[in-house]
């Protein structure tokens, strides 16, 4: 933006740029004030009645405030209509423009108004004419990779441990900590609370511990993998951190306790507080979400949704129980994800494989088989087999915005934004994967259509991020109807808004999260976690264009 810089422009630029702009404005302001003073001096003979009153406000007869100077049109001429404005100038804004406005000036002005001396004087021109700068401010923000946690692609290719990959991640509510779960049952914690901006990596290693060990299911005679399916931060009530973690069968509550010893470094000790293992005996846990009251959480498998109390690990309450009475009955509708509202402790949602988003109110009834609100988008006809259509309409994840009014959902092909105040249809729909019959048949045959892609929305529902194949993920800017495809790699590539050609379906970005207070997103790809921040600056090798968003 060339020319004058308004207050709204300054919000998004860096602190150093703000200082440069203010210095330029101050220089231009002083020059303009001197011109006004010279013109005012030429008019003093016709304004003897009010000149002493304004002179009292300063130390000398030529010391005039900004507001008193604006009382006189340039060259003694009346202002035309294009120069008029409401005249109700903000006192704080005038104080900020070189501190030329004082309380004495306000009293003098009140005294003049009572006498009606200049009641016919036309309103002054807008104060923006006093601001001048030759700087051009680049307000464009773009996504930049600020940290990669984990080995790079070359190191992984030469490693013998190819089965060690990221299976879950989550930022804590403050955004200062990242919890990363992997396929070996470990949880890694990274901390940015003490970052001073000196280090290149804002998130520093905090602690790593083994949460789940290999186990065996005696009922079904199968080995239980150690994969950390989900991690969930609890509200921080003390110096210790509390995190929930689960594999397919068992949920565990961990406390990270800091032990301080004189003359030694602080030691972090992970302590197992509770073991929740009796709620999901027949099916596999896929979702874990803490309720904002800090006392309860929910967990879900394909047919059950349970409510737990943190201090009662031996029992849970079934909010949803769709287990068939006869094991021979075919199940066509399963639960695919569950989430608790981050701002209202009585509201949760769960999604299903038949294109349903169910909003439940825990105050209304105990069993939530009948939701308080049902969101369901119409399915457009497509020339595909029933198997592919069934997978395409399966909602894999959903997330609440912190405003409490909007949610975002993800299926294989699309991301939809819903406003709970207008639940009849989604307010926006963004395409992730365009329909291609040949490609979808290949994906269905190799099992890719059942990949559970996660989705995350920022606090005001103006941005959404979700993943795709070949280490790509897409960030949507809903305010400007744009999207950006990025590749989660140490040597990352920036692409246009068009969907890239994906050559490797074995590498995928399934897990994503968005900082609650800043434009920071985290994405997990195979063995590493990547942290991106949206900030002012040139975007290398970037093309940006309008996205293919659909409005309803």
From TrEMBL:
InterPro entries, per database record: PP2A_PR55 (IPR000009), WD40/YVTN_repeat-like_dom_sf (IPR015943), WD40_repeat_dom_sf (IPR036322), WD40_rpt (IPR001680)
Region (Disordered): 73-132
Protein origin, superkingdom: Eukaryota
Example of a GO cellular component annotation carried by this entry: protein phosphatase type 2A complex
Gene3D superfamilies for this protein: YVTN repeat-like/Quinoprotein amine dehydrogenase
Gene Ontology terms for molecular function: protein phosphatase regulator activity
Keyword annotations from UniProtKB, A to Z: Repeat, WD repeat
Keyword Nucleus on entry: no
UniProt keyword GTP-binding, yes or no: no
Family: Belongs to the phosphatase 2A regulatory subunit B family.
Record's protein name: Serine/threonine-protein phosphatase 2A 55 kDa regulatory subunit B
Record organism: Bigelowiella natans
């Amino acid at each position: 933006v060339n020319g004058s810089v308004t207050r709204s422009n300054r919000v998004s630029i860096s602190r150093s740029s703000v200082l440069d702009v203010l210095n330029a404005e101050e220089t231009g302001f002083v020059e303009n004030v001197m011109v006004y003073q010279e013109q005012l001096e030429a008019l003093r003979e016709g304004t003897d009645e009010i000149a002493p009153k304004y002179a009292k406000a300063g130390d000398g007869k030529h010391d005039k405030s900004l507001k008193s100077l604006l009382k006189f049109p340039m060259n003694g001429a009346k202002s035309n209509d294009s120069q008029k404005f409401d005249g109700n100038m903000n006192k704080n804004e005038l104080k900020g423009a070189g501190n030329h406005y004082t309380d004495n000036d306000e009293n003098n002005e009140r005294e003049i108004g009572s006498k009606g001396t200049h009641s016919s004087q036309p309103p002054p021109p807008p104060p923006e004419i006093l601001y001048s700068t030759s700087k051009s401010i680049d307000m464009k923000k773009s996504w930049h990779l600020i940290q990669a946690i984990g080995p790079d692609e070359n190191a992984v290719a030469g490693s013998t441990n190819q089965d060690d990959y990221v299976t879950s991640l989550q930022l804590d509510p403050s955004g200062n900590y990242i919890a990363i779960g992997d396929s070996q049952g470990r949880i890694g914690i990274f901390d940015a609370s003490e970052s001073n901006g000196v280090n290149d990596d804002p998130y520093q290693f905090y602690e790593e511990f083994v949460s789940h060990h290999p186990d065996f299911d005696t009922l079904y005679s199968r080995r239980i993998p150690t994969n950390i399916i989900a991690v969930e931060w609890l509200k921080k009530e003390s110096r210790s951190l509390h995190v929930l973690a689960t594999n397919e069968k068992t949920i565990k509550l961990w406390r990270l306790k800091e032990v301080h010893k004189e003359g030694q470094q602080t030691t972090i000790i992970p302590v197992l507080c509770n073991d929740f293992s009796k709620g999901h005996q027949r099916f596999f846990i896929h979702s874990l979400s803490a309720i904002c009251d800090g006392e309860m959480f929910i967990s879900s498998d394909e047919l059950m949704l349970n409510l737990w109390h943190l201090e009662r690990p031996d029992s849970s309450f079934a909010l949803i129980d769709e287990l068939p009475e006869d094991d021979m009955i075919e199940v066509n509708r399963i639960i695919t994800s569950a989430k608790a509202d981050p701002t209202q402790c009585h509201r949760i949602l769960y999604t299903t494989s038949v294109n349903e988003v169910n909003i439940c109110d825990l105050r209304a009834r105990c069993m939530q088989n009948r939701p308080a609100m049902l969101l369901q988008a119409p399915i457009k006809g497509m020339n595909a087999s029933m198997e592919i259509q069934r997978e395409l309409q399966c909602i894999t994840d959903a997330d609440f915005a912190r405003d409490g009014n909007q949610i975002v959902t993800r299926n294989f092909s699309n991301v939809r934004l819903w406003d709970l105040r207008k639940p009849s249809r989604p307010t926006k729909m963004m395409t992730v994967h365009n329909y291609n019959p040949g490609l979808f048949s290949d994906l269905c045959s190799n099992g890719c259509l059942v990949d559970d892609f996660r989705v995350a929305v920022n606090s005001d529902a103006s941005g959404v991020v979700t993943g795709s194949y070949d280490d790509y993920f897409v960030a949507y800017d809903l305010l400007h109807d744009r999207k950006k495809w990025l590749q989660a790699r140490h040597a990352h590539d920036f692409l246009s808004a068009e969907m890239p050609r994906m050559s490797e379906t074995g590498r995928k970005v399934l897990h994503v999260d968005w900082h609650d207070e800043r434009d920071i997103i985290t994405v997990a790809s195979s063995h590493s976690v990547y942290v991106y921040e949206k900030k002012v600056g040139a975007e290398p090798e970037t093309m940006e264009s309008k996205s293919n968003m659909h409005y309803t």
